[in-house]
Fold this sequence. Notes:
Blueprint: E1 3-7, H1 12-23, E2 27-32, H2 40-49, E3 55-57, H3 63-72, E4 77-80, H4 87-92, H5 94-114, E5 119-125, H6 149-167, E6 172-178, E7 180-182, H7 201-209, E8 216-219, E9 231-232, E10 234-236, H8 237-253, E11 256-262, E12 268-269, H9 270-281, E13 287-290, E14 299-300, H10 305-311, H11 319-332
Helix pairs in contact: 1-2, 1-8, 3-5, 5-6, 7-9, 7-11, 9-11
The structure holds nicotinamide-adenine-dinucleotide and uridine-diphosphate-N-acetylglucosamine.
Uridine-diphosphate-N-acetylglucosamine (UD1) binds next to helix 7 and strand 8.
Amino acid sequence: MATILVTGGAGYIGSHTVIELVKAGYEPIIFDNFSNAKPAVLARIKQICGRSVPFYAGDIRVYEQLAQVFKNHKIDGVIHFAGLKAVGESVKKPLEYYDVNVNGSRVLLQVMSDFGCKNFIFSSSATVYGEPDAVPLTEDSPVKRANCPYGQTKVDVEYMAQELQIAHPEFSITLLRYFNPVGAHESGLIGEDPRGIPNNLMPYLTQVAVGRLECLSIFGNDYPTPDGTCIRDYIHVVDLAVGHVAALKHCLDNAGVHIYNLGTGNGYSVLDMVKAFSKAIGRELPHKFAPRRAGDVVSCYADPAKAKNELGWVATHTLDDMTRDAYNWQKNNPNGYED
Ligand code: NAD
Ligand code: UD1
């Protein structure tokens, strides 16, 4: 079975994907510098998979560190999760974001090219669509200049990879545009473990639920939506991980550029999420309304038909599954991964 390098494989989405790769019979190799992960995740992955997964500590910006993996293994494809992802931090540290996300991806593609590895799957984001002109978003919806450095690095890497494919048509480039990944593995052993106070909705909700934070602030209740709060397409991280396995099979067999939305097609408001979460914990989750957050789009959800038609993939987890598993992870690990 194919050997797959998973950069950022110790992170939130990467760790769940490694598990689905093992389940599907692939040989993943994790490459991560732990800038936003803890080594403890490796033992958890081993516990779930029943065997250890090879691991390299390294930085994607360092050619030799990546090349070492390609010298030691015949790598059939790369799933590239490694990168920085905090919107607010990216505004304060734009050069660091371009260095890790864009330059790091460039170094990785160079190493792949030098070692004859042509199959590349990239973690892009629905953020490339900016403020949508219309929802649901299809892959043909316009890609816009992003309103923050993080978002722009996703746009830039999408273009860089596509331009490489034009120059070298034997490359198979898959760009996966994730909507809002949430939830955790049903074992409760792995999940999202953000540093500091979470910026994203779901980890904030889970930390309020376990009493680590007091109250959720809902950013804005005067948006032009049915209940006045913003709408997103929340997708269970295990569905997302399974989507990568489906995309990988396709990527390994088809040169070209392939772009897919990975979402459920359902739009839920912030208040819908609070209600679902309150149901999961059996009491009302403390929440209050607060001013709008700068940069938020009103409504963003996917048309996932292309991934269904071409990859045979659909998200199967419900909103109740997402809240149950997110809560289960947080309850079992109130302080995340502790080393
Ligand atoms: P994460 O931070 O949990 O995972 C990223 C991993 O990359 C971490 O383990 C980190 O230690 C590692 N890493 C960072 N810089 C590195 C470097 N220079 N060299 C090697 N490893 C490095 O994030 P995630 O939520 O799992 O996201 C994975 C990818 O998906 C990212 O590229 C992110 O931008 C993208 N994405 C995430 C979301 C989301 O909501 N989580 C949405 C859309 C896209
Ligand atoms: C955010 C980023 C986006 C990134 C994505 C994944 C912004 C503006 N956008 O998307 O670029 O790709 O995360 O990391 O940061 N909310 C609250 N209270 C909170 C937290 C969130 O009301 O404490 C609301 C937000 O206003 C939004 C919704 O919940 O309406 C979802 O927020 P979040 O989880 O941060 O995701 P996005 O804004 O979609």
